[in-house]
Amino acid sequence: MAAGLGLAAVVAVATSVLLAKPLALPATPEAITVVARPITSFRSGEDKHRFGALDFRGGLVLTSDFSGFGGISGFSLGKDDRFLAVTDAGLFLSGRLETDGDRPTGLSDVEAAALLDSQGRVQAAHHRSDVEAVTVAPDAVYVAMETINEIWRYPRDPLGQKGTQVPAPAIRDLRRNTGLESLALVSSGPLRGALLAIGEEGATPAADLPGFIIGGREPGTFTVVKSGPFDATDLAFGPDGDLFLLERHYSPLTGVLLQIRRFALADVKAGARLSGEVLGTFDMGYEIDNMEGLAVTRNAAGETLLTLISDDNFSLLQRTLLLRFAVVRD
Questions:
Q1: b or e along 239-252 (b: 16 or more beta carbons within 10 Å of the residue's beta carbon)?
Q2: Are strands 141-145 and 131-136 parallel, antiparallel or unpaired?
Q3: Cβ partners under 8 Å of residue 199, min gap 6
Q4: Using the 8-state DSSP alphabet, how is residue 194 labeled?
Q5: Contact 322, 60 (CB under 8 A)
Q6: What's phi and psi for 170, nearest 5 deg?
Q7: What are the backbone dihedrals phi and psi of residue 31, each rounded to the nearest 5 degrees, phi first?
Q8: Given a cut of 50, is residue 2 above it in pLDDT?
Q9: N or C end of the chain: which has fewer CB within 10 A?
């Protein structure tokens, strides 16, 4: 124990060291190198790849010498395997996901740059670093910030570019550290052009999750039925119009838990209360961490692929994992 410090103070100091956010916030894009180690088995010691409605296609443990790498909370993936991610430190990360078939093999052409405000200032320097979600539109990129509960719009290639805040007064009353975690752009149907957002928690830890339809022709609010202990961490639309929700729970007794639910976009409307279908629930017996980012794509065989990434909280005790599953057809 350090001289002159009580136990609580020592724990606080140790926690701050383990969870300290990095100071690497380049205002212009900086090339970085990311090293990938393969995950060949989703459940340690087993060759099994089918887990309920999900088929494990591979995974990676990602590391980098760049001090700003980590804390990845939002992840988007295009048809050309170009990705865009956001981090808790207020960074954009972009590059290419390399694959062998559906199996992820690494990240290449990776660049990092701080999110900028409308005046070109680094957002993290003005209390806007807790960036939790990203979604890509044909002409823009939208990001969600949790602690301050704001949505910002950026150009389609956002690194080094200025952003503008999107008016969304409905989300401002979300709780400070359990606020806006999930964001997705609706590309078809009656809600086309609207943003869907889901809060991490409701008014209490046991309450249903708050949902928001922002913009479009039919704005409003909805709720997602609370599923056991799980909180929302990301959502994304599938190629067939389904909505996938990534959920997580943590307690000292259970460690981290992961769940994935699927909803029909047709059921999303103002005033709706959505239950969805659980596709899989996983505990620490599987190769998971604090999974917070979700991208949904389609492979050459027409299967829906879910690509998940974890937020390591910039902690020495956690990992940045990228996992990929195919949704098993009925």
A1: eeebbbbbbbbeee
A2: antiparallel
A3: 171, 174, 175, 178, 179, 180, 181, 182, 209, 210, 211, 232
A4: P
A5: yes
A6: -65, -25
A7: -70, 135
A8: no
A9: C
Q: Which fold has domain 36-327?
A: Tachylectin-2; Chain A (2.115.10)
Q: Which of 42-46, 61-65, 122-126 has the highest mean pLDDT?
A: 61-65
**Looking at 18-27, 184-193, 286-295, 298-307, which range is the least confident one?**
18-27
Banded pLDDT at 8 (limits 50, 70, 90): very low
For the chain, the residue count is 330
Q: Which residues pair with 54 in a beta bridge?
A: 51, 327
Residue type, 90: G
Does position 32 have pLDDT exceeding 80, yes or no?
A: yes
pTM over 0.85: yes
CB 165 within 8 A of CB 152: yes
Q: Which residues make Cβ contacts (< 8 Å) with residue 133, sequence separation at least 6? A: 73, 74, 86, 143, 144, 180, 181, 182, 183, 197, 234
Strands 273-274 and 220-224: parallel
pLDDT band with cut points at 50, 70 and 90 for residue 45: confident
First to last CA, the chain: 57
Q: Is 11 helix (H, G, I), strand (E, B) or coil?
A: helix
d(CA 194, CA 192): 6
Inter-residue contact 221 to 210 (CB < 8 Å):
yes
HEC per residue, 258-318: EEEEEEEHHHCCCCCEECCEEEEEECCCECCCCEEEEEEEECCCCCEEEEEEECCCCCCCC
| Cβ atoms of residues 142 and 12 within 8 Å | no
